[in-house]
Amino acid sequence: MSGKPREIANVGTGLWKATGMWAWLLFRISGLILVFYLGAHIIVISMGRFDRLNEVMKTFDHPVLVLADLALVAAILYHALNGVRIILMDLGIGIKRHKAVFWAAMAIVVACFAVFAWVAFTYIATGSGVVD
Amino acid sequence: MWSWLFQRISAVLLIVTLAIHLVFTHILDIGELDYDTIGARVAHAGFTAVDIILLAAGIFHALNGLRMVLLDYWFTSRRRAMALSTALWVVGIAAMAYGTWALWPWMT
After folding, report:
1. Is A31 on the interface with B (CB under 8 A)?
2. A45, B10, B22, B106 from A42: Cα distances, Å
3. Where are the domains of chain A?
């Protein structure tokens, strides 16, 4: 009776030992956030029709809301790159190395997020962007 | 099957158009978004196309995704699923009409 104990099967609570379950849950949560954001976004942009767009856009200049916007970017980037991974799996690309594909996608998320975070924090600190 | 396929087609459209949208709104025009700067951007034919594709693909992808989530919970019978799809199509078409109406003064 030597050797490692048998790995717990991916059923029941054991499911949550797999990275894929967390990827799936986060995909759902980020997706739902983006659905509600899209609705809010369409309503905000439609304020242009009522001559109220500029005053609404001004309220979004508050640092807390700039950070909320950055959180939105994180949700978009995660949802987009995990979505790319799902499409790759659907096409049969990289299935044998699916874990590496997932972490490569996450590396792209982090790299892109760093750029947006740099711009957002520069804006909060100086009141202007990094490119003119 | 069609909803699965169109979810992927709209996903690819969104990756391209949303990347353009985010670079312009969150990097290039940060802090400068108002009625006139948005108007100057949308006035280009290319951006009109980007925004309309973004709106259509975004609404479809969002509501179809919401449908997939809801089908896992309460909308489990065929009758409930049909009612859900019908309601989401109504919401989607209304959102597309309203969104196009909102962008119209800038596009024309």
Report:
1. yes
2. 5, 18, 15, 15
3. 12-126
The span from the CA of B96 to the CA of A42, in Å, is 9
Name the percent of chain A lying above pLDDT 90.
50
Cβ distance A34 to B35 less than 8 Å, yes or no, reads: no
CB contact under 8 A, A83 and B69: no
Please give the angle made by the CA atoms of A30, A115 and B19, to the nearest 5 degrees. 60
Cβ neighbors of A110 (< 8 A, separation 6 or more) are none
Lowest mean pLDDT across A19-28, A78-87, B59-68 = A19-28
Span A12-126: which CATH code?
1.20.1300.10
Please tell me the pTM assigned to this model: 0.87
**SS3 label, residue B4:** helix
